[in-house]
């Protein structure tokens, strides 16, 4: 299903030979319309990969005919030749579809700093184009994996019968202002590119933007939303936003569960904040404490490490009014020891850390993972 | 030697029974004058331990007769009773010295959130006072260790024959705006508390403040500078600042080398910055990239992870003018691949990563460590 769940889309995922091991490494998603309305959000990193620079230009036009995605190389920090490679890839897809390169988005993921094997990739576009089908969503989702152990897909039916489908990749580097992730979401509902843009920004702000597995921000993050209009359904905008948010949340959850080396999925739930921004800031600071992430890995309810992370922020709070619960046990009350820490059960994979700032009515939740020897191993032994 | 290298100081380090294992856990450093001029800098964390709140008040007066330091408990996040315990400790030291509690600084280090065994600690003060000696510097340095594998001490002779001595502890949580560290520096030079304050702030800003082993900031960081004036030497202020900076740098280096689980000492040298602040910001961002720290652990010269960290900052730079060298090999030039990465030798323990922003004449160096399975183990198995 994935990106081909909605009407009007075909996809393919093939092994072009970009990855040495012969695994799938090239995906193509084509929107056959009648509409080509599209929106995109991109990494906030100021060091942007060539495909991000290219696709941001394409999306500025609000129309996308096709997206070509490769794993096996990020095409980031590759200079002018890297941008030429991205341009050539878009031109090649345009040629096989007999369309305009200005409406072809390009995404890449893999090692930074190395040039893609461009001839191999361009040959792969021919093969992918020849395999495009209404059943190609799963193969496409498989082809964009790097260290992902499983494909990430999602789909939902909207009111009136339109469909939303999506695929994503990303396992490390999950971070604010988007993770290292590529994500393509499709729908056969009928909407303008302005509507898609507004909905996508709202949905990603409360889903992908609130993942922070290791605090690192990628050069390649891209989330695209493509609408074919093939169902003829014009959705209620609020309902559509809800569906897109659900699909984003579902994919975000899948990314987190598959994060490199993680043994715990940790929700940092900040309540009692003076503003939503304060809640996000505090959640982010707590989620980035390596010491806390190690403690949770060791199933140690070390709330002192929570408080010392909260104390590094400029959020509104008084230290002696902070409360912290871990898995529902309020082990810190009024900035000091509360309930017995032995009551905390940290054996389940899912861990919730609640931080009450006692400063207002706002809240936000940031999702992170524990820090494990497996994370260290994966990121010291594998060049990515 | 340590804090008793300068004239006018006595010290002791004893096992009071605060630590379960019977190791030394209480240190006392006494300034017998004739001067008591002193200065201190404290953690920027807004969640401050009771001894930090107390000692900041003491130092506001510019005079310190004695410093009492304990390991085995941070006395942080312990509420009003924790503050009372700190106060009682200062009163006890004042009583045994027949002096004023208002000139007794208190430092604590260990687990956050648990009350100190205060009776044990107060009894220990009596024992420590009975063992005060001109030879006690090493025992004092030993008594403030937590996960430190070795004591950290330093001393220098200044022009005209005055001495500077110091001791420090700290192995994890080394971070900006001071690390988890307690540090006491003594001198027998004659200076005012205002002079000491200005010198200490300048010295810590370019030494301890530029350590960032794991991005975590402690609730207890304290650096104290005490002057007895016993040598009768009034030093040249610039020369004195140089000596204090050297002692701070020496202790900082010892902290970094002993950082929990580290196998590499990494200097992030940022050059070509538009301002010193930009250089510090970029150095800090790079030093906090878990992905990069894992790569260096794996001896992989992964400059893409350097650039993606640089890109998260608001420093002045253009992505296509960034250059990166690892151990002297410029493997990234103009934001793209430069010299052959196979030329980089990452086997030595000391690693230098040079980031050239090509944006100005300013520079700064941040010191960090690699991220290892041993770090994860130490911080998941040990509650600190």
UniProtKB/TrEMBL annotation, chains A, B:
GO terms for biological process: L-arginine biosynthetic process; ornithine biosynthetic process. It is found in: Cytoplasm. SUPFAM superfamilies: DmpA/ArgJ-like. GO terms for cellular component: cytoplasm. Pathway: Amino-acid biosynthesis; L-arginine biosynthesis; N(2)-acetyl-L-ornithine from L-glutamate: step 1/4; Amino-acid biosynthesis; L-arginine biosynthesis; L-ornithine and N-acetyl-L-glutamate from L-glutamate and N(2)-acetyl-L-ornithine (cyclic): step 1/1. Keywords: Acyltransferase, Amino-acid biosynthesis, Arginine biosynthesis, Autocatalytic cleavage, Cytoplasm, Multifunctional enzyme, Transferase. Its main location: cytoplasm. The record marks 179-180 as: Cleavage. Its EC number is 2.3.1.35, 2.3.1.1. InterPro entries: Arg_biosynth_ArgJ, ArgJ-like_dom_sf, ArgJ_beta_C. Signal peptide: none annotated. It catalyses: L-glutamate + acetyl-CoA = N-acetyl-L-glutamate + CoA + H(+); N(2)-acetyl-L-ornithine + L-glutamate = N-acetyl-L-glutamate + L-ornithine. It comes from the Bacteria. Substrate binds at residues 146, 169, 180, 260, 379, 384. Belongs to the ArgJ family. Catalyzes two activities which are involved in the cyclic version of arginine biosynthesis: the synthesis of N-acetylglutamate from glutamate and acetyl-CoA as the acetyl donor, and of ornithine by transacetylation between N(2)-acetylornithine and glutamate. This is Arginine biosynthesis bifunctional protein ArgJ. It comes from Planobispora takensis. The gene is argJ.
